[in-house]
Structures are given as C-alpha cells and as structure tokens.
C-alpha cells in the first residue's frame, strides 16, 4: 500500500466517522423510545431474535465428563428482557455446543447462557450488528403476546368451567 492509498483511507475515515456517530445516535434514540413505549405497555415478556452465530476459535474440544467431540459457536441475540429489575432492549450471548456423536438429534445440542447487557451498554459494533433486527424483535414480541393472551383466556375459561362443574363459583 502506498502513501496515496493510506491518505485516501484516512480521508474516507474522516468523512465517514461523523456519519457513523450520527447513525449511532439516531439508533440509540430509537431504542430508548421503543424501550419507553414497551415499558409503558407493561408487557413483561422475555423475547429474543437471533442476530448472528459465529464459530468459536476452538472448533473441536471435549466435554468435561465425556470424550465426545463437540463444535462450539457463540450465538448473539437481540432481546427484550429484564435487566436489573427493568425490561430493556438487550444483547444476549449464548454458547452452543454440538456433539458429533449422539443417538438423538435433539440431545446433540446444548446451549449455555454467557451474558446479557442492555443494548445501550453494548460496544458500538454489537449495537450496529443488532439494531437492524429490532423490527423482527417487535414482531416476535407482538406474536408472543397475542399467543399468551389467547392461551390465558382459554385457560381461565377452562378453570371456571371446572369450578362450575364442582359446584363452586
């Protein structure tokens, strides 16, 4: 790389960095507004959507008590969840372990929780990676809420019918 290429790169960085700062500030304002809206709705459901799955540096390892080779990956999620007593838009990370050997495909996957932090506290690169998934998170939250309401109404009706059948109201 010659001096002109380096200068061109520096000029590009100088031009793009204010745009990046503005875009990140706008994303932060959107997330804060969404959090406020959801918290005013008092939904209180933990919902997440997958942002990415990346292989671990350790491609093959062994489980502690077994000699089963496994592949590791880290899964990043955008979530709406309780953090420090308040529901927030958050970034979660899980570690997935996949056993090469196993008798049941469902038993081959193991997921371990690694961390969760508010989206607003995440590093900028994580924020930018997760932010485009916000519409999917809101859609998933609406779907889960709808299903939960329907199930709760049906369960209450069933229990009332049982109580009526038992002669209690």
Could you walk me through the main structural features you see in this protein, from its secondary elements to its overall organization?
It contains 3 helices and 5 strands. It has helices at residues 3-41, 124-130, 134-165, and strands at 47-55, 61-62, 69-83, 86-99, 109-118. Strands 1, 2, 3, 4 and 5 form a 5-stranded antiparallel beta sheet that branches. It has one domain (3-133). Strand 3 (69-83) and strand 4 (86-99) form a beta hairpin. Helices cover 46% and strands 30% of the residues. The protein is an alpha+beta fold and 169 residues long.
Order of helices and strands: HEEEEEHH
Question: What's the count of strands?
Answer: 5
Shape: elongated
Residue runs with pLDDT of under 50 for 5 or more positions: none
Structural class: alpha+beta
Biggest sheet overview: 5 strands, antiparallel
* Tally of structural domains: 1
Oligomer: single chain
Rg for CA atoms? 23 Å
Structural key phrases:
elongated; 3 helices; alpha+beta; 169 residues; 5-stranded antiparallel β-sheet
Q: Strands, helices and their partners?
A:
Blueprint (H helix, E strand, L loop, with lengths): L2 H39 L5 E9 L5 E2 L6 E15 L2 E14 L9 E10 L5 H7 L3 H32 L4
Antiparallel strand pairs: 1-3, 2-3, 3-4, 4-5
């Amino acid at each position: 790389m010659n001096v002109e290429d380096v200068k061109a790169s520096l000029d590009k960085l100088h031009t793009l960095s204010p745009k990046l700062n503005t875009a990140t500030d706008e994303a932060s304002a959107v997330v804060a507004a969404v959090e406020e809206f959801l918290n005013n709705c008092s939904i209180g459901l933990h919902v997440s959507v997958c942002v990415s799955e990346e292989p671990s540096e350790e491609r093959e390892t062994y489980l502690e008590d077994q000699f089963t080779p496994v592949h590791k990956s880290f899964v990043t999620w955008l979530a709406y969840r309780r953090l420090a007593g308040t529901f927030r838009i958050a970034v979660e990370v899980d570690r997935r372990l996949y056993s090469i050997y196993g008798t049941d495909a469902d038993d081959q996957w193991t997921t371990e929780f690694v961390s969760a932090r508010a989206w607003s506290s995440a590093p900028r690169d994580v924020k930018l990676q997760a932010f485009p998934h916000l519409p999917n998170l809101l859609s998933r939250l609406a779907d889960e809420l709808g299903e939960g309401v329907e199930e709760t109404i049906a369960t209450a009706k069933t229990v009332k019918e049982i109580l009526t059948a038992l002669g209690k109201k």
